[in-house]
């Protein structure tokens, strides 16, 4: 019996920046803003033949207890601008940026992605996110607060409108015949009209068709609506389910939604974010992982993390001491602003009870508790163990690959590139050379024009 | 004033498509099919850097180029379409080491928060060589691309009338607020805000981050920026100005203004007006460069330059008219003219090559050596930042405690 062919793994690198997994206190940790750090990170990813580099975005500095949150890395570059510069120091690596649909306009974002795609020779990708808060909106002339139900409808219309603009040029308009003096085949090149609930715009788009036609589209939302949105039109999902069982469930759920949109399973990639710690042996890696967790969760960070649940100021508590005896404030969230994960704890009283019991049973301090209940690293082990586990997860349809989030800037990917990637290549599940120039080639995605032709023919 | 005691001139080149003459793309060396590639722009900027120029500017707009102000012109015989200027500048930054990079930013339809961090990031990727050229857009068809406001369809002629002037004034007032927000955001992080204090677990000293709390007639912005203060502190702010309203923007907000004098007397008059506005704005102590803009056809003999202009005009089907003085002649003649204008008070020039593939190398390989022979231009890059090249100090942060 012949088994089905092995899936090829897709790997990407998430620049470790404003993120509570980033360890800035390590002596190896470099700048999070100097271009040399970004260039180092991108070159490592390209040396390892990764599919793409990924940048997150947050458009207002996070606050907790009415103050700018100062315990994680703070500060990041402008997404488009840094990606354009990285196109100059790489040749093949995909360049994926998170761009918010709430605080932008379709015309501007479409021309930025079309420009980035031209300037990178077809390597751009857009992680479309939508925001929810007037807090971030205070940084923008157009404000930003949207009721929950309008958020997705605006995001959908934004993405559709940007797509219409990018499709307004077909690729054959520029003649540039010096002899005859015809530059443009058609005076109406780039014409568009969009009339909708959120956008009412018309005119001529001013960037000609880029190599990929459209950037590769990522979606990161996890709600029912988000999954449907991704199934309908995204090229890839940046998911949070990196464990085997939850990964398989998510994978089956989302891929199962594709058929009703006339899409095949390989037209939407599932790529969870994953952290890793390597060591010479598995035991070695476990020891390093414990060390990294302690570095990620300082005493001050542990208290701040507890405040997400308690929803009150806990600064007077000793992080090395027991959990607070006072109960969480179950009123409106007034502790934290500008971050997404706060509302994960839906029942703070129950969570607090559970955590107190856990801490008492194990004799844990506040810091120990946060270290143990927080996110454990996804892959911990020797290079052989990590390579084998990643491959098993992908072949078992827990994902199509991973977006790796190292904890050190900029060298945190180096060891993975040098030790794990060659093992995956030996197993025949990861490329040894780039097979094409564009990110769509790396991801095995068709060019939008070919996809359209395919749909028209069927 | 003797030529040996003249302070050196500053030189910039304005990049726009294949050049400023509408028929420039038809020159054999023009490479119009490569306009939308990174290699095209990298080659032009490398040529400018070869000539030790202070900086290049990148034109931009939020719609197709048009010879009309009120509508697209529907022409198919000129270059149409372009890439985002900030991203083009950033793409070129890692490939160059000394030259300043000054993309156009359209204040009318964009977010100052986004553009502030974009130019700050350009400053990081270029290690201190970023600037911006702020521009307004009163073109109604560009407003239609955003659908957020309606602008009157005014022709170039009507722009000079009362309705046009009212609209222009309004848009420049908004642009002044826009630059103010950008500048405050650049200062919203003090230089030493990142402390990495392992003992207390603090990455930053948040007392060194500042809300800018800008409230204006057009928008309000809270801050701070998400991007730390850029290497230059304040990247270079520039603007093109033809009349009193934009002169005022230059005088109030810019480090450098581009003006369009047609002769030395005109230059003296413009310089006096801008300097008076500068004084009125209370900035007379601050350095403010005034660059003359000139379109140039440069050849080793004057007849060749004039013939080339005539030939391009014929291809275009009409004589080329510009807001700036158009020069056709030799490097020595141009050097004479620049020095004459400099004596009228201009501190430098932004040359607009009529044909990028011809006139940019003529600037970097003919004009520059001519100016160097006269002791009027640098013979090596003397500073690492754009502000440094222009003799501008790194400004103190407005939010730092004295």
Automatic annotation (TrEMBL), chain A:
It holds the Pfam family Bac_luciferase. Keywords: Flavoprotein, FMN, Monooxygenase, Oxidoreductase. Residues 25-396 form the Luciferase-like domain. FMN binds at residues 98, 152, 223. GO terms for molecular function: monooxygenase activity; oxidoreductase activity, acting on paired donors, with incorporation or reduction of molecular oxygen. Belongs to the NtaA/SnaA/DszA monooxygenase family. PANTHER family: ALKANESULFONATE MONOOXYGENASE-RELATED, C2H2 FINGER DOMAIN TRANSCRIPTION FACTOR (EUROFUNG)-RELATED. NCBIfam families: FMN_nitrolo. This is F420-dependent methylene-tetrahydromethanopterin reductase. The lineage of its organism: Bacteria, Bacillati, Actinomycetota, Actinomycetes, Kitasatosporales.
UniProtKB/TrEMBL annotation, chain B:
The keyword Oxidoreductase applies. GO terms for molecular function: monooxygenase activity; oxidoreductase activity, acting on paired donors, with incorporation or reduction of molecular oxygen. Keywords: Flavoprotein, FMN, Monooxygenase, Oxidoreductase. Residues 32-310 form the Luciferase-like domain. It holds the Pfam family Bac_luciferase. FMN binds at residues 60, 104. InterPro entries: Diverse_substr_monoxygenases, Luciferase-like_dom, Luciferase-like_sf, NTA_MOA. Belongs to the NtaA/SnaA/DszA monooxygenase family. This is FMNH2-dependent monooxygenase. It comes from Streptomyces mangrovisoli.
